[in-house]
Design a protein that fits this description.
Residues 1-21 form the signal peptide. This protein has four helices and 13 strands. It is of the alpha+beta class.
């Protein structure tokens, strides 16, 4: 009996170790170098990434990123200058790190020895950022990649406004070294529904969003099929195919205005 109790106690202790280890805080590190001047020079590429993080809803804590000597952060290996994006409990850090690595693959995490009250963790977006398969290689060495993110909007407390769900497409141009050079975004699938007291019922949907890639032209074309509700007003657009052309060249990416084809209008009695 004593041996059974001992074994059960040992199993409980072993099982508790991973849980305890997983709760250790980590630092999210964007870049770094042994040379301070080199580390300071890395800041030149931050504005492009900063803009994209804002667009995709990830908010860094105030004062970040910040360049520090690794020896000043308990738990980090001394001898480096590192750009810290935040410090988080490891469980909270996982989805944030996943988001960061999609846009800045060199980002990594390291365990640190900081009390909970000193942690400053980035605020994650409302919905995760997802990478799509479409990739466009530019002859000069840049790469255009596509990411999506779900968004929602709701009417206000008085019922004004519509309920909207949409898929946001982010087109991101990366340099040869993986730095963010330029971005554009547009809507894909969208579902708009509402019954605003001032404007009446609304229903509008765009579905079947797809992307075609033209490597020779350096372009991606996003297309979708859109349609309004059966109670669309006389003469208003009832359905159409919509497209946006995204063009990448050197260090910039641009998006055309939405173009409509195969337009059908609501009949008038």
């Amino acid at each position: 009996m004593r041996s059974c109790i001992f074994v059960l106690g040992l199993m409980a202790l072993i099982g508790a170790v991973p849980a305890e280890a997983s709760s250790k805080p980590v630092a999210l590190i964007w870049k770094g170098s042994k040379d301070k001047a080199e580390a300071e020079g890395q800041e030149y590429s931050w504005p492009g990434l900063e803009k994209l993080l804002e667009k995709t809803g990830l908010t860094l804590p105030e004062g970040h990123p910040r360049l520090v000597q690794s020896k000043t952060v308990p738990g980090l290996k001394p001898g480096f200058w590192v750009w810290i994006l935040g410090t988080c409990p490891s469980d909270d850090a996982a989805p944030i790190l996943e988001h960061l690595k999609l846009l800045a693959p060199e980002t990594y995490s390291r365990e640190v020895k900081l009390p909970a009250k000193k942690l400053a963790c980035p605020k994650p977006p409302a919905s995760p950022l997802l990478a799509r398969d479409e990739v466009l290689k530019i002859p000069s060495g840049e790469t255009l990649r596509v990411f999506t993110q779900e968004e929602t909007e709701s009417p206000d407390e008085e019922g004004h406004g519509d309920s909207i769900s949409r898929t946001r497409f982010h087109f991101v141009l990366f340099s040869k070294d993986g730095e963010v050079l330029s971005t554009q975004d547009t809507e894909g699938d969208v579902d708009v529904r509402g019954n605003d007291p001032a404007t009446g019922p609304t229903a509008y949907r765009c579905t079947d969003t797809r992307i075609e890639t033209s490597k020779d032209a350096g372009k991606m074309v996003l297309t979708r099929s859109c349609g309004a509700s059966a109670w669309a007003e006389c003469g208003s657009m009832l359905s159409a195919d919509e497209s946006v052309t995204v063009t990448a060249s050197d260090s910039t990416v641009s998006a055309s205005a939405m173009e409509r084809t195969n337009i059908q209008h609501a009949e008038c009695d």
